[in-house]
Amino acid sequence: MSSMYSQVPAYSHGIYPPTSGYQQPVGPGYSYPQLPSTQPPTPVYHVDPNSFRRDFTTRLAELTINSRPIIQSLSMYAQEYTRWADAVAQCIHTHIRRVPPWMKLPAFYLLDAISKNVFEPYARHFATFVISLFLETYQQVDQPTRSKMEEMLITWRTGAPNGKELFGVITQLSIERGIWGGDSTSPTDVSSQNYLNTISKAQVLSELEFTLGQKDRALQANPWDVTAQKHIEVLHQLRNLVEAGVSQDELRQILNQLRSLTRTAPQVQPSLSSYPTHPTQSTTRSYAHRHGAPATHPTYSYQSEQPKPVDASTLVPAAPSSASSRPLPTTNIATLYNALLKAGVVSEGGASSSDHLHEAKPPVSDTAGYSRDASRSYRKAVLSEKVKLTTADILKKRSSVVDLLYNRLPVQCKQCGLRFTDDPCGKRQMDDHLDMHFRQNSGVGQNVGRGRSRCWFVSPEDWTREGTVDAKGKGRVDGPRSISKKVVDAAQRDAELRAQFVVVPPGDEAKSIYCPICKESMKSEFLEDDEEWVWRNAVRKDDKIYHATCHSEAVTSALSLAARLRNDGCSRSRSRTPEVSALRSTPPRSTAAGPCKSHSASPDMKRAMLKRKVDDEDGSLIAVSEDGTPATKKLALAV
Amino acid sequence: MSDTSQADTKEWVLEPETEYRFELDPGTSLAIKLSRGNAEIFGAELAEGKTYLFGFECKAAVFTWQGCTIVMRQPSTEYVSEETPMGSYANLHMAFEQMRVRALSALHGSPVPGNDHGANPEPPRVLVLGPENSGKTTICKILANYAVRVGQSRSPILVNTDPSEGAWIVPGTVSAVVVTSPIATASPVNPLGSAATTGPTVLASNALSPLTYWYGHSEIKKNPLLLDRLIRNLGENVTERHCNDPEERTSGLIVDTSSSFVSGSSSADSRHTLVKACVDAFRINVILVVGHEKLNVEMQRLYGSQLTVVKIPKSGGVVDLDYNYRERVQNYQLHAYMYGQKIDPPPGITSAIVAGEAAADLVLAPSSSVVKFEDISIYRIGEENMAPSSALPIGAIRTLSEMQPILLDPAAAGSGLLNRVLGVLSPFHPDENERYDEEILDLSVTGFLVITNLDVPNKKMTILSPNQGSIIGKTVIIGSFEWRE
What we know:
The complex is a heterodimer of chains A (639) and B (485). Chain A is 50% helix and 4% strand. Chain A has helices at 49-61, 68-80, 85-98, 104-117, 119-127, 130-140, 143-156, 169-180, 201-221, 226-244, 248-264, 278-291, 318-324, 335-349, 364-384, 400-407, 424-443, 460-465, 485-499, 548-565, 578-584, 603-624, 630-638, and strands at residues 411-412, 419-420, 501-503, 524-527, 532-536, 538-541, 544-547. The radius of gyration of chain A is 27 Å and the shape is globular. In chain A, 42% of the residues are buried. Mean pLDDT of chain A is 62; it is low at 1-43, 183-196, 264-337, 339-365, 444-449, 469-487 and 562-639. With 485 residues, chain B is of the alpha+beta class. In chain B, a hairpin with a 4-residue loop joins strand 23 and strand 24 (460-465). The chains are: A mainly alpha (639), B alpha+beta (485). At the A-B interface, helix 15, helix 16, strand 2, helix 17 and helix 18 of A face strand 5, helix 1, helix 2, helix 3 and helix 4 of B.
């Protein structure tokens, strides 16, 4: 089915020109040093490896936090003393093994920085132990650190100066298999086919996060980059899709496209503008061939990621400039998503044509349907019993609780006793639950004697937002809520909105119109079935045409806030109307808060808006109340 | 799991809706295995074939709805009871589930079946009140466990406002957690689950992420004003969290209280101020009064018009706990905060789990370090020994408010800092302009320290800290708890 996709260059082929000065996008607070060649030599000269080793160990001990200057200086120091590379490698190795889990990541960043900057001889020294060290560390650290390590691991795929695996393909594969699973039968088979065997959801999610992070940073560097914005949007949808559960084929397709996306990114730099866009084309070819729809292709594999907005040209909106270098029209974004939906239909239904967009039911709808059915039948069961909250009524004997707690949930986890239904929804919960146990068990044994300790508690700011961060893979890694219905619902709602269209009045095909909310132009396209030009993702309200997603977002946020805003006599109470919502929009400089970006698929932004509102609201409420309790006082002061 | 030493084992066949109750003596442990049927401990179901360990003077009960056989490895004080209030607690759970599904339906905009009164469906926000030794905490645990077991991704918030209880941390705190997995019972050290460690856990309830405020004392009367303030602060944050996550809000919340909220000799109005603080802070809509007729009537009178007050039966299995026992448990809890809890299995047991986890996984390694006096600012809230306001002569006014933070000098003679438990405050507001005098009273805590040695001549002290994170520059508050290893 997906044989076409194997034409998408798998990364191990390394057909791309080598990338120089690869910047690994890591979390804030650290970015890789570009070692200047005119670095003043270190004042200390070591004559024997032992004193060097002592000195390096001492310096290494300072690396307790993720500090760029420390990593940079250690990295330069290592560059200075390549003749004792084995000692450096040993020191780092011992250091990472010895230190507590929360200090391991900075040390890994150091290892990463040294091997990328001084590839020879360090990479081969590290390669001897990096597999076990990485996997062992991975088991000991918490989830956010794991995500960081996964991000780093992904950069290792192309970390070598020739664009290949930093520590060699076998090392790379071993580590990836160690953390994401996958059952390659022949570990020595280094062909790209290895990557196409079994792909786990976790792996795809992790790569999605990585790519998202890359795009987010690109967007921060260049807030006007419409392409990047759209990429992020699509990636968010993809993530929802994957989290909701998709087939192996789809996982593979997503993964392939992701990889082409990530790989293409670093090459399209202004300084490398002479490079032909052949990677894009090669990806495009297979993709276009597959769907026979020229409009669908290059947008996803294309990215103008500029490392720094150094010259004036990057300060102007990037979209036109990238479009000019683009060989093909980019009229239809979100095609990656749609195309995947289509692909989903194809791979499920066999031979059906991908052109039938109306039949393109998102694959998530099944699971969403199941979970809706399940919760509906649960609701019915619960409400069928008449229980009143009175002293007399709760003394009555009923047996319904046994049904709810036992009989309705026949599948039981052997390890902890938790129960699930035996419908598809419950099966998925059980699978996730067992995965969680497995992850936990594989980490146990190794932790004995290595010292667990009590964590500090979270701050109120983090605690009050905890429940809403699960999409990022932080927190809530276990527990039934990790397969959040919300995500499924959101993805489906979004797909439905995007499928809406407005027929373009005859003669207006060439006219460009703009969504009053996000101010972006509406893309018209030709529906072959209906033989009409339409604006996709569009809705007509009061003779204005909005993006369906923007409009829905504006309405829901206005409604959910309406209650809280009721006491608020100022003009904000009229924010029901999308026009007013649009007025609230912040200029595009601040990338995080523009309402046009607040799709249901980007909970971060929505939350940011909501939070701001809530704060304002609390403040105004407090101003009129005479409560005067300490906490409200605090809030009042904070406003 | 070896079934070799048959001689030591004892088998109990429990009829449906009966429970096996046991009480452990200090220093003993007990192992229980479910060999057939279904059984649960305070609402958390046991997995068949697993051996569960209990220790630290644990007093608990294995209840079965449908009948079961359990195998005991080391019987102790034990008996089987056929009279349990579980049926009533199950009815409560059903009533709360109905409230939850209605609230969820309303949130999703779907029609709410059976909601003919047209009332706005609210999730259950339950306050559990009762006299001493009435099983309030256990009821909270059962209700939370049933909620997370129904397979509907429920995540109720559990709040502990009883500072004499450690809940999931240490005594002296008021705090809240979100429960997503059943809470297992192994000992009174963690009656409501355990706060997170650096290691992974089988049950989410052993890696809870609490929002915690430090009251610092076990007794309510020590500083009721401060407790009132902390409860309201906690409520603010719970409300904000529920605003951020409307779906989670529909799971509701359950608030455990201290018996001192409703007892005492002073007039009814003044002793119910903390009940009022809870009702206001958590927007309570259901009050459960455990087995106390007079209290029920009082609550009906005070709150009957605005919310539902229900009297519920007390379990006959509740053990009267004396002051010494509670003090021992508080010591266990402080120890477990730093070192985790280690329950030695009875002889003959090779593989057993404690509160759902492998026994070895519960052992923790704290960190001890020497810091200079000036590295940490230590405050006390109010006077060390303060008579309650009501005990002052008529017309007299305090010279020192019980809410005033006082900076302590560790070098001062008789500072009383040695072996004291210190609550580490969250950082002050990053923006200077947002700060205010009493901010220190409104900050949550991130953890606890113990001063294990004071070296006055060198102006240094040894601090035991739960982990290796830096404690330099922290502001801490002392309470009245002391702890020695």
